[in-house]
Design goal:
- The chain is of the alpha/beta class and 336 residues long.
- It has eleven helices and 15 strands.
- The chain has a single domain, classed as NAD(P)-binding Rossmann-like Domain (Rossmann fold, 3-Layer(aba) Sandwich).
- The chain has a seven-stranded parallel β-sheet with strand order 3-2-1-4-5-6-13, sandwiched between helices. A two-stranded parallel ribbon has the order 7-12.
- Helix 2 links the parallel strand 2 and strand 3.
- Helix 4 runs parallel beside helix 5 and helix 6 packs parallel to helix 8.
- It is globular and about 60 Å long.
- The protein starts with a strand and ends in a 6-residue tail after the last helix.
């Protein structure tokens, strides 16, 4: 049996579904009852759990749990405009650090040897690079300002506590370093510095659907990952006797903005005669950093190999899921 905390999230729904499809018994938690019907129709028990309420963990099973997948967290991309007037460091600490502590204690007291959590790739924000690829356990180096700083601090603290439990109580906790995760969900929009903005991918898709020109600025190349590959990684790490510590869970390759635009123009065109023209603007520079992560450790320890590393394969499946409508309906009306 596996417990997935935070299953009313984008990654949580895909992960719970993946475990179920692979014959596992899953109990999930969340705070949004809109997801209850989905899980109950799929014969998955759904429990309302507040990660910051220690007594809520008493509702979870105490026997026969192989691992806990902790997906729930407070994210900058979901913060409201209140972030501008009130610093939300306390929220990140309560949810991401204290919540992890409660989850780890639940595991320890009930003989569960593994909890899988996440950290932000932003912990390398000062030294992001492509060549050589970023390794899993390099020393962290990140900016101590900006709307992601407090979040990164909280996730780093949570991972340090997980390692403390590994050494103090002989657990085999795991934490994934995730880059931007693509997939059908509420991520066509995100919150940046308190304002809702359309994601770059959503801009490309909308323009492609309308046959409009797509402009690409600069030669940015990023290592991204598809949500189904993240779900695969959770499953394989949870089932592995060897997995322990930090792992990069990415595509293991870079995708340029130009490739993204060209793929979207191809896949989302109304017809052959109405394809968007992709215009590469060399005169416009992109201030973001390019980056690539090594996934050799995850491949070695639990045979992680992304099925959707190529962006065209990712977007073909993305479009199929959009048309199927199962996951998009769960997030209908949510922009962040």
């Amino acid at each position: 049996m596996f417990v997935i905390i935070g299953a009313s999230s984008f990654i949580g729904v895909y992960t719970a579904t993946y475990f179920k499809e692979h014959g596992e018994t899953v109990i999930v938690t969340g705070r949004n009852d809109k997801f209850r019907d989905y899980y109950e129709k799929n014969d998955i028990q759904y429990i309302n759990l507040d990660l910051t309420n220690k007594t809520d963990f008493e509702m979870l099973p105490r026997k026969n749990v192989e691992a806990v997948i902790l997906i729930s967290s407070a994210l900058p991309a979901s913060e409201s405009a209140d972030l501008i007037k009130d610093d939300n460091t306390d929220k990140y600490i309560k949810v991401n650090v204290l919540g992890t502590c409660y989850a780890l204690e639940y595991c320890r007291k009930n003989g569960i040897k593994r909890l899988i959590n996440t950290i932000s790739f932003g912990d390398f924000s000062k030294k992001l690079r492509v060549d050589p690829p970023m390794l899993d356990d390099e020393l962290k180096s990140f900016h101590m300002s900006g709307d992601h700083a407090a979040y990164i601090i909280s996730k780093n603290a949570a991972s340090d506590i997980a390692e403390y439990y590994n050494q103090q109580y002989q657990m085999r906790n795991v934490w994934f370093r995730l880059p931007p995760v693509y997939g059908v969900g509420p991520h066509g929009y995100l919150m940046r510095n308190g304002k809702i903005i359309k994601s770059g991918l959503q801009v490309f898709i909308d323009k492609a659907k309308n046959g409009e020109d797509i402009e690409v600025y600069g030669d940015l190349a990023r290592d991204i990952v598809y949500v189904k590959d993240v779900a695969q990684a959770y499953y394989k790490a949870a089932k592995s006797a060897r997995a322990c510590g930090v792992y990069n869970i990415t595509s293991g390759r870079t995708t340029t903005l130009l490739e993204q635009a060209e793929v979207c123009a191809e896949i989302f065109a109304k017809d052959e005669n109405n394809k968007s023209r992709v215009i590469y603007r060399e005169d416009m520079k992109n201030k973001a950093d390019s980056y690539l992560f090594s996934i050799e450790k995850a491949n070695s320890d639990f045979e992680y190999k992304p099925c959707f590393a190529k962006f065209i394969d990712l977007m073909r499946d993305y479009k199929m899921e959009l048309e199927r409508g199962v996951f998009s309906s769960l997030f209908a009306g949510r922009k962040v």
